Amino acid sequence: GAGVSQSPSNKVTEKGKDVELRCDPISGHTALYWYRQRLGQGLEFLIYFQGNSAPDKSGLPSDRFSAERTGESVSTLTIQRTQQEDSAVYLCASTSQRRGPTDTIYFGEGSWLTVV
Amino acid sequence: AQSVTQPDIHITVSEGASLELRCNYSYGATPYLFWYVQSPGQGLQLLLKYFSGDTLVQGIKGFEAEFKRSQSSFNLRKPSVHWSDAAEYFCAVGARGGGNKLTFGTGTQLKVEL
Question: For chain B, which ranges sit under pLDDT 70?
Answer without folding.
Answer: 96-100
